[in-house]
Amino acid sequence: MLKSRLAYQTVSTSLYRDFRRRETLPSSPDLLWQIESGLARSITWTDKGKIVTLGLWGPGSIFGESLSLIRPYDVECITPLTAFMLPRDSGPYLESLLDRVSCMQQLYCIMQVKHAKSRLMEFLCWLARQFGRLEAEWYYFDLHLSHQIIAETIGLERVTVTRMLGGLEQEGLLERVSKTAFKISPAKSFLNP
Amino acid sequence: MLKSRLAYQTVSTSLYRDFRRRETLPSSPDLLWQIESGLARSITWTDKGKIVTLGLWGPGSIFGESLSLIRPYDVECITPLTAFMLPRDSGPYLESLLDRVSCMQQLYCIMQVKHAKSRLMEFLCWLARQFGRLEAEWYYFDLHLSHQIIAETIGLERVTVTRMLGGLEQEGLLERVSKTAFKISPAKSFLNP
Q1: Which residues of A touch B47 (CB under 8 A)?
Q2: H helical segments located in A132-191
Q3: ipTM of this complex
Q4: Confidence (pTM)
């Protein structure tokens, strides 16, 4: 989503940190992180322990407790991730925030699609546009996400996601290129009509 | 959401404009609006004409085509509204954007509540906190929203919203103070546990 908009090009290397898959980024009220490479998700959970994904984020995205009123709030690495600390008072992350507003609106819009299979298809198209590459009329993207994470992002059950991904493949709407890579044609997406 | 954070206190009066209920704010790629008073919603619609609400906004909120990648995109006044044009290049609307990111996350979180009545209750609590006033342990708020707008905001049918509002009243979770005003106790809200 923010591929071409990395606001910080001259960050001190001492502010960089590498994180492993599933690791949680350190958090404090004054700390902001910006992703350099990798994929993460912000999450919360209910008192019954059910995880709710609040967003999926790639290079350029900014996080921090101060960007969310929702508690509990964690940022979990989906892939190995490099991020750097962002001084809370420095200005030039406006573009990232504009992108983030836009991104949240799109995810909110996808959540309003009632029919589960259509919602999943919209989400896959969104993923492809955000994190994939366009070749001819197809988007290629590496699906780093488990079916569980997809389910927690768009409010479905894991078994439903697994069943429907199979269905979309059979219908030719989604094509498996390798174990984790897919290609998809987002031509009919609701958000990109 | 942005009540105490109006970034602009010294805007030329020539930039102010009043809008009527249901009027649409003028739009262009370089134009941003900030609400001074009143309530608005950003909307899109499907090719079948079904309206999807993208967000509800009060004083301090900023809009514009450049904040959304979703097309079509309109901002419609729910109440009479006063707004002023914001120069696209001027800086100090960062706080408003931080609030907007947070706000979108909350709406997205509410959309993940599967059970329709619980989702409606979460949304009412959110409305109360955003636009209401707290007295003792109750939030008082004027529900300027039609049942149709509520339905279009949280992905339900209008008849479902009408039936469930009646149910919540009967259960004592929601209390009608006047024709449009309600009081509610958001103590058990998912977003504010």
Answers
A1: 193
A2: 147-154, 158-170
A3: 0.72
A4: 0.77
**Residue A86 sits in the same domain as residue A22:** yes
What ranges make up the beta strands (E) of chain B?
A: 16-19, 32-37, 40-45, 51-57, 62-63, 74-77, 81-86, 133-135, 138-142, 174-176, 181-184
- Residue at a domain's end among A48, A63, A96: A96
The reply to whether residue A52 touches residue B102, judged by beta carbons under 8 angstroms, is no
CA R_g for chain B: 17
Distance from CA of B68 to the nearest CA of A (A): 5
What is the pLDDT at residue B6? 43
The pLDDT tens digits of the residues spanning B3-37 come to 333 444 455 666 889 999 999 999 888 788 889 99
Q: Give residue B29's domain range.
A: 16-96
Domain count across chain A: 2
Q: What is the CATH number of the domain that holds A153?
A: 1.10.10.10
Same domain for B69 and B136: no
Q: Do B98 and A66 touch (CB under 8 A)?
A: yes
Indicate the residue of B42, B52, B105 with minimum beta-carbon distance to A70: B105
Distance CA B51, CA B45 (A): 4
- Asked whether residue A92 falls in the same domain as residue A117, the answer is no
